[in-house]
Amino acid sequence: MCVVRLRGPLKQLAGGEADHPVDGATVVEVLRELERSRPALDGWILDERGLIRRHINVFVNGEQEREDSQVGPDDRIDILPAISGG
Amino acid sequence: MTELLVGTKKGLFVLEGEPGSEFEVKARAFAGMPVEYAMRDPRSGRLMASVTNAFHGPKIFYTDDPNGEWEQAQGVALPEGGDEALERIWTIVAGEDEQTVYAGGDPGVLFESRDGGLSWELNRALWEHPTRPDWTPGGGGLCLHSIVPWPGDPDKLTLGLSAVGIWLTDDGGKSWRNGNGGISPRYLPDDAPADTIQLCIHNVHRAPKQPERLFMQFHGGVYRSDDAGENWTSIADGLPSDFGFPLVVDPDDPDSAFVIPLVADMDRVTPDGCVRVYETRDAGASWTPRGDGLPSEHAYLTVLRQAFGRAGGGDQLELYFGATSGDVFGSGDAGATWFSAASHLPPVFSVRTSA
């Protein structure tokens, strides 16, 4: 089971906890399970297509990854807003 | 006291004041987030806001107190596993049933709430319309921005979409048909099919006391329909430009409409640096500029499609519009004179009153 680390509004929506142990073999599986098990997060990280939202970055052990990247039981997944805006 | 709900690029501002003087900021919500649209449902008093969170996607939130907690409404999403994602909610409109609220969004979608805005469902008939594969977005996306109920008849609804024309239902949204007769798009070749739906509607409003009458601001054109949106007649003669975004009607006068012309699609600012609202009181036969109190020199404002609202009607008609400059102007006498209601706000996306 990897650990998903949340910050900012995502952490608030997840009950104030930063770290969340979640099952899954790929990034998208983990994120889908995270949103399913914490319904307040539903749609905040993944869009309806199952893609990571455009301005969200996902890092696995410090390396930026995409939806189909493999994850292992000891991995840490950080979810961060991208450097964007205006 | 008038309450203004001003959606901006950097949050929702709730203003209060009396016509004639600067309004006070009573609340700011969703700081830093684009708020496309906000309205207060006159039946419940509930505030609803469309927030296009740049990071986490479009949501609708609701509250009874804009300075208190906002709750996220449920169901504002497209079906999972498809090829499209919801981009934005452009408008929220109270329906004719006691608890019905509608929301329109990009990509050309209608949501319906039967519990006063707490939970929502996608209108499947429009989502699955057989013409949808041919729908073409405009520069602002495939936006369903105008939802026009028929007073007293919840089965009838008119929609305006950019850029797929006018859509009509007489069965409460179970089926939809076009109502585009007479609309003439200059941005298509002369030999484009007469039944094209590639029509960039900018705004539609109904005259509530004569509901078969509608007024429309088009992407190059101002039109009136006297047959409930089936056919349209140009009423742009007399305007300095037929390009613009918002439109308002006086609910007490079916012959009235107000528009804010911009130069053209290639130059979306007020003509000649002069801010004017144009009023018709004869259903579009003639137009009169209203600008007493509005900037008349070196004022190149852009007024977006939802940034023109009203309160009351007849002699009590109040008009308010905001610009991407962050200015909000108001009139307490149906446009005869104008005052500055707010300035130095972030770029204004929408202006609605609570009336």
Total strands of chain A: the figure is 5
* Proportion of helical residues of chain B: under 10%
Order of helices and strands of chain A: EHEHEEE
CATH class of chain A: Alpha Beta
Strand portion of chain B: 35-45%
Task: Report the count of strand segments of chain B.
Answer: 28
CATH architecture of chain B: 7 Propeller
Tally of discrete structural domains of chain A: 1
Largest interface: A-B, 18 and 16 residues
Rough outline of chain A: globular
Radius of gyration of chain B: 19 Å
* Overall 3D shape of chain B: globular
Describe it.
The complex is a heterodimer of chains A (86) and B (355). Chain A has 86 residues and is of the alpha+beta class. Helix content of chain A is 20%, strand content 26%. Chain A has one domain (2-81): Ubiquitin-like (UB roll), CATH 3.10.20.30. Chain A has 2 helices and 5 strands. Chain A has a 5-stranded mixed sheet with strand order 2-1-5-3-4, with helices on one face. In chain A, strand 3 (56-60) and strand 4 form a beta hairpin. Chain A is globular, with a radius of gyration of 12 Å. The termini of chain A are far apart. Chain B has a single domain (2-353), classed as Methylamine Dehydrogenase, Chain H. Chain B has 1 helix and 28 strands. In chain B, the strands form 7 sheets. Chain B has a 4-stranded antiparallel sheet with strand order 3-2-1-28, with no helix packed on it. Chain B has a 4-stranded antiparallel sheet with strand order 4-5-6-7, with no helix packed on it. A 4-stranded antiparallel sheet of chain B has the order 8-9-10-11. Chain B is globular, with a radius of gyration of 19 Å. Chains A and B meet through loops of A and loops of B.
